[in-house]
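We close this part of the discussion by returning to an individual protein. The sequence in question and its C-alpha cells are set out directly beneath this paragraph:
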Amino acid sequence: MILAWLAAAWCAGAACAALFGEGAYPIALALVSAPLAAAAWRRQARLAFYALALPALFTVSVARYQASGPHVASDAVGHYNDGVEMRMRGVLRDDPDVADTSQLFAIDARHVQVRGEWLPASGGVQVRTGLLPRYRSGDVLELEGKLESPPALKGFDYAGYLARRGIGSVMAYPSARTIGHEDDDVVRATILHVRRGLSRALALSLPEPQASLAQGVLLGQRSALPRGLADDLNATNTSHLVVVSGENVVLVSAYVALALSWVVGRRRALVLSILAVVAYATLIGLSPPVLRALIMGILMVVATIAGRRSAALSALLFAAALMIALQPQTIRDVSFQLSFAATAGIMFLASPLRRWSIVAVARALRLETVPRWAGTFLAEPLAVTLSAIFATAPLLALNFGRVSLVAVPANLLVVPLFPLILASSLVAALGGLLPAFRLVFAAPAYYLLTYWIEVTRWLAALPHAAASVGGYGAFWAAVTYAALGSLALMFLRQMRVGIESPLAESRPLNWARLRAVAVLALPAAAIASGAALAFWPSSPERLEVTFLDVGQGDAILLRTPSGHDVLVDGGPGRAVLRGLGDELPWHDRDIELLVLTHPQADHALGLLDVLARYDVTRIVAGPGAEPSATYRAWLESVAGEGTPLQTAREGDAFDLGDGVRIDVLAPDATMAADARINNTGAVLRVSWRDISFLLTGDIEAAAERAMLSDGVELRANVLKVAHHGSATSSTRAFLDAVQPQIAVVMSGADNPFGLPAPEVVSRIQEYADVYNTATDGAVHVETDGHRLWVSTSR
C-alpha cells in the first residue's frame, strides 16, 4: 500500500494546486505537522517516514502543476488573438466533426502573414466553417479571418479545455482554400480509411438518427448526434455509452470476456478482452481522452485477473499519478476525472452490488438459486453501470450543473442491451459494405437503436428528469464524495457478513445442445426475416405532404398512395436526413423524384447528403445557376448519382400514379433568365382529386406577377409560403389567386433575418391558418383527395 499512499499524495497535490493555487502550500504544511507530532509522541519511525514523504510529494506535485501553467511560445498564433483579420496556414489534425450546417476541426498553425510576409507560427486553432468544401485529416489550408480568444462559457472553463489540447485560438467561418495535403503515416492512414468506410456503411444502411447513434457507439463520432438526441442522452445519463470512458471500456471488456469465457476460460478471456478494447479504442482514435479511458479500463481488467482489490487501488492511483506527472493539467480535464471516478467506483462497488442484486432477486422470487445467465448478462453489467453512476454523479453536478434523476431506470433498461447494440452496429457497418444484403444486416441494429432512442426520449420528457444544481461547487463535491465513501464502507462491511451468492453453478458448454439450438434458431431467424419483409409497411392510402423542420430552409417530402417518394429541396444541411428518417419506413432507401427549386444553400446543401445515402430515380432542378461552391457540389453529386438532370420549365408535368400529378407552373422563359436567382426557382402544383398544394420555393413579387400574367392555375388548398415569409413575396394579388386554406412558413427559430415578416403573416392569416416550422416543427398534411388533416411534431 506504500505505492498507493505515494501516488495519492501526488494526485492530491495537483488537485489542491488546481483548486487553491498558492494556498496549496499551507495545506502541505498542515499535512506534515500533525503526523510528525503524532510520530514524535509515539516514537514510530514508519509514521515519521509517511509524515515527511507524503507532504514532500504533495509539495513537489503542487510546484510541478504551477510550473506547467499555460506557456505561450513566442511564435504562437495566440499572440494575434482579437486583432484584425489576417491570413494563416495550417494542417488539419484529424477529420472534421460534421454538424448539421457546419464542420469543426483543429489545425496546427504553420505560418501567419504579417505585413505581406509569411512568418513561421505554432499553436493550435479551432476552426468552424460551412459544410463545403469537405476537408480531411492532413489537408493544408490557407485561412483568412479573425483569430479570437476562446469565449467564456458559464460554468465551464472552455479556454482551459482547449488549452489542454494545445489550442489557444478560435476562428469562425473564415474564407478557406486547400493548398496542399500531408499524408498520414501508414498506420494512421489505415485506421482513418477503415473508420471512414464503416461510417459511410452505417450511413447507407440506417436512417437518421439511428445511423448517427451507431456511429457514436461504434466509432466515437458523437458530433453527428442531433441536438435533441444528445440532450436526451445527457438527461438520462446514457451518454456514457456513446463516448469512450473508463466505464465504457470496462463494459466492452466485460462483454467480450463473457462471450469468450465459454470457449477459452475466464482468465484467458480477460486477457483477450484487453486486446479487444485496445482494438476498439484504436478504431475510435487514440486521442488523449481515449488513451486515458483505455488505461483505466485495462487496469480494471488486470485487477480482476489479479483478484486483489488493494493491488487494483495501487495500480489505479499509480496510473493517475503518472498521467498527472507527465501532464499536470490533466487533473483539470473532465474526461480524466470522470474516467478515474468511474473506474474507482467499479473497482469497489460493482462486485458487492452484483452480489446484492442477485440475493435480492432470489429473495424476491423465493428462489434457492438464480440462473447463471442472469448474473452474467444482467447483474454484472448493471452493477458496473450503477457503480459508475454513483461515482460520477458529483463530478457531473460540479462540471455541468445537472444531475439526472432518471439515470438508474434508463441504464437498467438500456445497458443490458449494450453488447447487442454494439455488436449489431458492427454487423450493420460490415453489412453496409455489401449493397445486396445491406438491409438484412442492418435490421437488428435499427430496432435496438430505436429502442434506446425511444427509452431516452420518453424518460427525458418526464417532469424533472434532470435537476439543475446551480451553486454546486468543489466544496460540496468533496462533501458528497465523503458521504458516498462512508456509505460505501458501511455497505461493503454489511455485504461481508454471512451473505452467500445464490448463483447457480456454472456448467461446461454442451456443444451438442448448442448445435441443436443453432439448427432450430437459424430457420426461425430466416422465417422471422421473411415475415418482417412481408409485413413491412406498404404505401400510404392517402397523399402525405410533410414540410420538414430543417431550420432556415426548405425541404418538403411527398408520399403518394402508389408508393412514390418525392423530395422537393433539402434544406441547409443534414437535418433533412432526420426528417426522412422520421417520415419514411426505415428500409425505404429510394426516392423516385427529387426536385431542387433553385441552387441556393438553404435549399440545396441537404440534397448532397440525400444523394449520398438514397437511390434517386429522377432529378429535376430549376434553370437557375450561380458560381458558388454549393452549385458546383450539387452538379458533382448529381453526376455521381448517374441520373440525368432535367431542367424544370413551365408546362412540365409528372404523373405519380393514382391520379396524383405535379405541374410545373414556373419559371417561364423570362423568369428563367432573371438576374435574381430566387425568381428562377421552380414552382410546383401538386394535385389529387379535389385537393392541391402550391410549392413556391423562394419566388419574389416579380415571379408572382409573371404567373398571374401567364394565367396559370394558382388556386390551391395548401400554400407553402414563398421565401420563408419574406416581405419580398406573398403579394395580395397572388394570395387572392391562390385562396389557400392552410399556409406553411418554413423558417428557422431565431433566424437572423427576422422571418417571417409580421406584416406578411397578418396578410396570409386573412386567408388561411398559418403554421411555422420554427415553432410547430414538421408540419404533416394528409389528404384522401377530398379532405385535409394537419398535425405537427411539436
Notes: Confidence is low (pLDDT under 50) at residues 505-509. The first strand starts at residue 86 and ends at 92.
